[in-house]
Amino acid sequence: MPAGAPPLLTLSGIAKYFPGVVANKDVSIDFYPGEIHALLGENGAGKSTLMNIVTGLYQPDEGELILDGYGVRFESPEAAIAAGIGMVHQHFKLVSRFTVAENLALGWRETGFRLSASAMARRAEVEAERYGLDIRPSARIDTLTSGEQQRVEILRVLSRGARLLILDEPTAVLSPLEVGELYAALRRFRNGGGAVILISHKLDEIMALADRVTVLRHGRVSGTHLVAHTKPSTLVTEMIGRPVEQKSDYPRKMPRTDDDAVMVLENVSCRDGAGQIRLHPLSLEIRAGEILGIAGVTGNGQSELSDLLAGLRSSETGHIRVDGKDMRGRGPNAFREAGIGYVPEDRLHKALAPALGVTENAVMRLFRTSPIGGRLAYHASEALRFTRSLLDQAQVSLAEPATPIRALSGGNQQRLVLARERMISHRALVASYPSRGLDIGAIAMMRQTLADIRDEGRAVVLVSEDLDELMALSDRIAVLCGGRLMTVVPRGDYDRARIGALMSGRDGGASS
Ligand SMILES: Nc1ncnc2c1ncn2[C@@H]1O[C@H](COP(=O)(O)OP(=O)(O)OP(=O)(O)O)[C@@H](O)[C@H]1O
């Protein structure tokens, strides 16, 4: 950033309160043009709330926003966009049946005055060139990878004239190659004088990309640092109040005794709504007392496979057996009764009912079973007792369990789903990208939980794109590419380069 340049945006003494919660208090931060400023903090530390204030979704209860030296008040997100502040959310807000150019055009002022398809595509190309973001204007959004969709989102924000670009965990859904492209695009924007706020739980990412970092703790700023002058361990301690050990191995507490297959898949396959094959026939055994890792670049059949394993989707061919029982055509309830818990990739929409309270969501999978319920009864006091114990286990502090679950921070929603599904998984837990959205302390806790489940003789299926995570935890790693099971690698044979090559469709091998 140029020496002596004034801040683009200053937050001065910002506070935001919700019933029983101090989400932000005394928050003062300067964001400069020409800097990438990371925002780091535990789940529930107040990062999203603060950004919702900056983007006009919430009004602060105290404090001031100062833009270009003048106090401002954004009555709506449109007002913030008009002032040059744009945000790219974790869940993209694109119209999936529209093309890239049409989605971009939705944000342009002149669109209302009839813009032809070719003019839209031309302008999309000009904007893409200007910001160095590679897009295909005529492609439909639902045919794009997550990385391509994210580029469209970023371009949509930038082409509306954003000078301050806010990104919420932008690399969570990207392949390693796409991460590199995103970093390059953000650096280009920064070098051209743009300001970036990066919400991230990944310390490596912050160290590699950010110029400065602000740590939030319990809604307050606990420090702002130049990244070049700070260490990751200092940031962790400032964020959580203690150091967190990053384990690269989770040795068994006792030797494995049970080698029974909990789940057996025989030639299962599935297609998407458009009839495209998403999972080619595959066979796989999931054994008691093991963690089976599923590696692959996002979108290569993992979500179809995990939905199949939890009864959310049925297989077109073959069989799924749980403890020898044929589950073909059975739904999620039958899988739950068979002892299969599931943490899906999209927790908010697949594992939770966003508008319902925390209690309803906590008991959602168990409200028909004793002591919470029976065929006709529902015991509210038992439901509340269960919810409180789940909150305790998940280490989520919440004064009022009637709060709608969508008001919880993303990480706290994830912690609750994990605790609930752990209770259900008497035989196996299927966990899809369980570290997404969790802070570093919660990730360590989650990984230990998976190892404990394994040590209790249950099975874990861990879907992840993080090879370090998979190699630290898994007994075997199955690699998916293009909806095909490439191979299953046993723990002794892990080789990062080979697994990486298999993930991108190179090399072959047998399936087991
Ligand atoms: N609309 C709301 N109503 C009630 N409480 C809310 C609301 N929005 C946020 N909160 C609470 O404010 C606190 C801060 O949440 P916020 O989402 O800002 O955290 P975060 O730092 O973004 O967490 P994460 O890393 O998990 O996304 C949490 O306790 C959350 O439950």
Automatic annotation (TrEMBL):
Keywords: ATP-binding, Nucleotide-binding. The keyword Signal does not apply. SMART domains: AAA. The keyword Nucleotide-binding applies. SUPFAM superfamilies: P-loop containing nucleoside triphosphate hydrolases. It comes from the Bacteria. CDD domains: ABC_Carb_Monos_I, ABC_Carb_Monos_II. InterPro entries: AAA+_ATPase, ABC_carbohydrate_import_ATPase, ABC_transporter-like_ATP-bd, P-loop_NTPase. Residues 9-243, 263-507 form the ABC transporter domain. One of its GO terms (molecular function) is ATP binding. This is ABC transporter ATP-binding protein.
